[in-house]
Amino acid sequence: MKRALGAAATLHRIDGARHPEARRIADVLRSRADKPNVFVLDDLENIEQAVACGIELDGLYATVSSSANGPPSLVGVDPDVPVHIIDDAVARSLFGGQKHSRIFALARAPRSPRLFDLIEATGDIIVLDGVRLVGNIGAITRTACALGAAGVILLESGLRTVLDRRLIRASRGLVFATPVILASRAECADFILRTKLPVAALSADALEGLDSIGALTGRLAIVLGGERDGVSSELDALTTHRYAIPMTADVESLNVSVAAGIALYEHRTL
What we know:
seven-stranded parallel sheet, Alpha/beta knot
């Protein structure tokens, strides 16, 4: 059920950068903590998706311009969450060079998923080995959620936290629906060895076509290498199956998010 933002609550105005709420937002945006207690959620779709996944909000914020035609409506948001109307100039100054959102929220960080949370889950596990473009990671997270993957493991991604604003936006908030885990290569290798999980890697020079992956029964760790260097030697040493995606001679390679989607679909367990 949708409700207008602030329909059942008092609207609080933030009209200056020294307002206590403005300072709080600034502190959260500046934080470089690996495990933040509070984080920023941008845009209606991402806020609604996060709330649907059990994320608790501390406050909702809408710029004056976003409320010009009446307060926007959100699905599933607790009516007791404080709602603030923030002057556009204040919002621009707070976000600075970062993407400026007209509607956003401060939310409480959930417990970070762990590698061994994936043991009891169903579906394949996507391992991104050195994939660093956040847009690709977000797109893969969405695909993983859509095709029933157990989760996504990020190795050497350059991210401090999966609560990174860019990743939340790129995944359309689905980073809260599918476990996304930051790990080292050593930790991931230990997890694979302990769980005896078969490893399938995608490589342009593999001799076997990806359509063969459907013959494998049971769940897999599907490894995709970084945009520049491919699969690392640590993960390559654990690989039990290698596949290539047949393509025309006109195309050298596919975007990693496209390749991940094809691999999950070919070995789908839905």
